[in-house]
Amino acid sequence: AFLEKPSSGTLSYFGGPDPRREVTLLLQNPYLLKCSVFENVTLGLRLRGDRADLAARYAEAMKAAGFADPESMASRFSSQLSGGERQRISLASRIIMKPRVLLLDEPTAHVDAASELMILDTVRACLEQGTTVICATHDRQLFAGFPGVREVELRRV
């Protein structure tokens, strides 16, 4: 996730040296700031100075993450959210950035069945839009039936 610099070698990403603006990571335990849902979801855009149409982009990302009424969530705070809502809001804060690569670490851990389905629908939509998704999971069936999904098992040698 480019959180650490390589100890040696060269990192090349689509021919360029700096992938950080195009790659984002969703952790299994979402961390939301102590501010509103709207502020959490739009934070990345605002940090980049990209403030155009924030309300519309917020609504689009929240709908993509399974929220039928994004406006009703906008002023809520993280302490008022369920685990599944927190995870989906964290996902919305990633997809609003329109990443080329979405890294997922156990994206459906600790969420209820309904939230799991919404997360999977969001991931499917990302794939359909051309986003590369890389997921670390113990659930080998999580993405069964998704088009173009390959399973790679990593083993320590």
Topology (elements, then pairings):
Elements: E1 23-26, H1 37-47, H2 54-64, H3 70-73, H4 83-95, E2 101-105, H5 113-128, E3 132-136
Parallel strand pairs: 1-2, 2-3
Helix pairs in contact: 1-2, 1-4, 2-4, 4-5
Q: Would you give an account of this structure?
A:
The longest helix is centred in the last third of the chain and has 16 residues, at 113-128. It contains five helices and three strands, in the order E-H-H-H-H-E-H-E. It has helices at 37-47, 54-64, 70-73, 83-95, 113-128, and strands at residues 23-26, 101-105, 132-136. A three-stranded parallel beta sheet has the order 1-2-3, covered by helices on one side. The chain is an alpha/beta fold. The protein is 35% helix and 9% strand. Strand 2, helix 5 and strand 3 (132-136) form a beta-alpha-beta unit.
Short description, anyone?
The chain has helices at residues 37-47, 54-64, 70-73, 83-95, 113-128; strands at residues 23-26, 101-105, 132-136.
- Span of the ends, CA to CA: 22 Å
Main beta sheet: 3 strands, parallel
Count every beta strand, where a strand is a DSSP E run of 2 or more residues: 3
Taken in chain order, the helices and strands follow as EHHHHEHE
Low-confidence stretches: none
